[in-house]
Design brief:
- With about 350 residues, the protein is of the alpha+beta class.
- It has helices at about 1-30, 40-55, 95-100, 280-290; strands spanning about 70, 75-80, 90, 115, 120, 130-140, 150-160, 165-175, 185-195, 200-205, 220, 225-230, 235-240, 250-255, 305-310, 310-315, 320-325, 335-345, 345-355.
- About 20% of the residues lie in helices and about 35% in strands.
- The longest helix is centred in the first third of the chain and has 27 residues, at about 1-30.
Length: about 350
């Protein structure tokens, strides 16, 4: 009984305050007739305040406060919070699947994943069996107003190829500031000892946040193979596996895309807000498509990249072998990268960056 009386008393007090506020507001509005459409709102507000003054938990429409809370899931309730108040972070990494889904070319020489040994950079194609390394991943935030505390970052290793099974290496957490803040990107580091069995390996890094604004850009992969040219030729072989539980037709496509140099920062006056205006966002999207569109990077005419097979139908969890022969022009000296991407319809299944030296 005491709890019920105190609850009614609190409701009455709050209702009285609301009624006084409504009456005071009406005095400040003066004696002029309200504009069309405002009279009903004022009357409803005052009537709702009177109802709360008398201890009612319903408004003029007969709704209770609980009735204005949207049900979610198994009886759980949540309030709809306006986006101006509730902010969501966007942790991300260079993600081939995300970029390809937007029609952009990709490289598998991931700029956000590398290896170190005793603090020195080591190429993923130069690993020694049974040696200790550190996998380093750069994690970014696409949000200008929502940081992340203790963001989980997971590391995986795979046999070099496309669709090969992955094995977990471990997990670390990092604190991630907002876009443009000091300390961004955050570095996630994980010690790793390579298997004793010689071979080529690729790495995956995945971030996961329970309320991510864009979970599609959370998985990145480093997958490169390097070979020296022999009489202008280099031959690569790698497995292609269908990881699905159904048959899938895969198409293999070669291109010559590499990451271009970063554009210099703008010298324009600082913006009033870090959030992009719709026109700015549209301009950046168009610029990205012009610089990185998938169809803009064919294999140069003086080079040859022969992929066999170019199309293959794989049963569920079936594996095949892909052979790629790269032929360089006679006068070539240096290093050149070519990409081989696997598509199932428009979806990117995986790929490798093949590097030749001569």
């Amino acid at each position: 009984m005491t709890r019920w009386v105190s609850g009614r008393f609190a409701a009455a007090v709050m209702g009285g305050i609301a009624l006084l506020a409504a009456r005071r507001a009406s005095r400040f509005r003066g004696s002029r007739p309200p504009a069309e459409g405002q009279s009903d709102d004022r009357t409803r507000a005052e009537r709702n305040a009177k109802l709360r003054l008398h201890g009612s938990n319903r408004n003029v429409d007969g709704e209770t406060a609980a009735g204005r809370v949207r049900e979610a899931g198994s009886g759980a309730r949540r309030l709809d919070v306006p986006p101006k108040i509730y902010r969501r972070p966007d942790p991300l990494i260079y993600s081939q699947s995300f970029l390809s889904a937007h029609g952009l070319a990709v490289t598998w020489d991931n700029p956000d994943i590398h290896l170190e040994r005793a603090g020195a950079f080591v190429a993923s194609t130069e690993l020694e069996p049974g040696a200790a390394y550190e996998v380093v991943a750069s994690i970014w935030n696409g949000s200008t107003n929502a940081p992340v505390v203790a963001l989980p970052v997971r590391f995986f290793v795979l046999r070099a190829g496309i669709g090969t099974p992955r094995e977990g290496l471990g997990e670390v957490t990092v604190d991630l500031g907002v876009k443009g803040a000091p300390g961004v990107p955050a570095e996630a580091r994980l010690p790793w000892t390579t298997p004793n069995e010689p071979g080529h390996y690729c790495l995956q890094v995945e971030v996961e946040w329970f309320d991510d604004a864009n979970p599609a850009n959370n998985l990145g992969q480093e997958n490169t193979l390097v070979k020296a040219l022999n009489s202008r030729h280099a031959v690569f072989e790698f497995p292609l596996r269908n990881s699905l539980r159904r048959a899938e037709e895969v198409r293999l496509v070669a291109d010559a895309y590499t990451l271009p140099p970063r554009e210099p920062c703008s010298t324009a006056e600082p913006a009033e807000s870090p959030d992009l205006a719709p026109s700015e966002r549209l301009h950046l999207e168009r610029s990205a498509r012009q610089r990185h569109a998938r169809g803009n990077f064919p294999v140069p005419a003086e080079w040859s990249v022969a992929v066999e097979p170019q199309e293959v139908l794989l049963a569920a969890e079936e594996q095949s072998v892909v052979k790629v022969e790269i032929t360089a022009p006679d006068e070539f000296v240096g290093t050149r990268a070519m990409n081989v991407n696997a598509f199932a319809a428009a979806r990117l299944v995986g790929g490798l960056t093949l590097v030749v030296t001569g």
